[in-house]
Amino acid sequence: MQTQNKFNHNTKIIGIIGHPIKHSFSPLMHNLAFELTKLNYIYLPFDVPPTLLKDSLKGMIALGIKGFNVTIPLKEKVIPLLKDISEEANIIGAVNTIVNDEGVLRGYNTDVLGVIESLNPYKEELQNSAVTVIGAGGAARSVIYALIRHFKVERINIVNRTEQIAESLKEYFSTKMLFNNIKAYPLMPPDLVNTFNSSKLIVNTTSMGMFPDIDDAATTIPESFNKEQIVFDVVYTPIKTKLLKLAESRGARIITGLRMFVEQGAKSFELWTGEEMPKDEIYKAIESYLINN
């Protein structure tokens, strides 16, 4: 079988660091994008425990690696080790994309753009609305930042298993973005039906419903949803989570996590290469892969 030997002394290396790393679909997405755009790059996963983070960054510079993504649990931990970070990464307190600019590591948060691009079709509806964000981790921070800065929502409910963490996130955005109309709730679905139902947008930013725990959902109460709503889940394995299926059955419009995944990846791709990612082709290819595997 003849193979295309495209890697040579000019091949540029991009990577992803995290711990664990095997769950990531980023290598599949970016290597396909490099193939479609005929760019001489390769994208590799690097399993980096937090104790080796500082050394790994030095190694990236020494080896001339052009850039990399950062995933859990390193998104927050990497910030003090970078020379320069973007405004949104600074406010959110998390970096998911790093560019090696001739030995200077610059950090960005492209998750925000993934959120913005996913929600942009509903921008007018979301203005001055009430929204509910499930979860209080790094993804929740990106969502809340986008909702305040770009969609001008009126009120944000943060729902989390540990109410204290939701409260601390509320205080964080009150201080960082001077947005005070946030309320924190513990994740107790029967008590939240009215909160969910009165929200124009519900966003799940947790791993609930992710494969293999596909029967998990923040709420399984049908009355949580209505046909005027938009329900967005950042999970993309499976493409339609239990939460999205239930919301759709109640007439709500749904946004899958795959859209956000491709959009944030496209921004990273552009930061590293200066080129546009063929987003539609990538989306269809990953969707097909997820459906058939």
Automatic annotation (TrEMBL):
Swiss-Prot/TrEMBL keywords: Amino-acid biosynthesis, Aromatic amino acid biosynthesis, NADP, Oxidoreductase
Keyword Thylakoid: no
Source organism: Melioribacter roseus (strain DSM 23840 / JCM 17771 / VKM B-2668 / P3M-2)
Binding, shikimate: 24-26, 71, 96, 111, 236, 264
Pathway participation: Metabolic intermediate biosynthesis; chorismate biosynthesis; chorismate from D-erythrose 4-phosphate and phosphoenolpyruvate: step 4/7
UniProt: NADP(+) binding residues: 87, 135-139, 234, 257
Subunit structure: Homodimer.
Matches recorded under InterPro entries: Aminoacid_DH-like_N_sf (IPR046346), NAD(P)-bd_dom_sf (IPR036291), SDH_C (IPR041121), Shikimate_DH (IPR011342), Shikimate_DH-bd_N (IPR013708), Shikimate_DH_fam (IPR022893), Shikm_DH/Glu-tRNA_Rdtase (IPR006151)
CDD domains named in the record: NAD_bind_Shikimate_DH
Residues annotated as the enzyme's active site: 75 (proton acceptor)
Gene3D superfamilies attached to this UniProt entry: Leucine Dehydrogenase, chain A, domain 1 (3.40.50.10860), NAD(P)-binding Rossmann-like Domain (3.40.50.720)
Name of the protein this chain belongs to: Shikimate dehydrogenase (NADP(+))
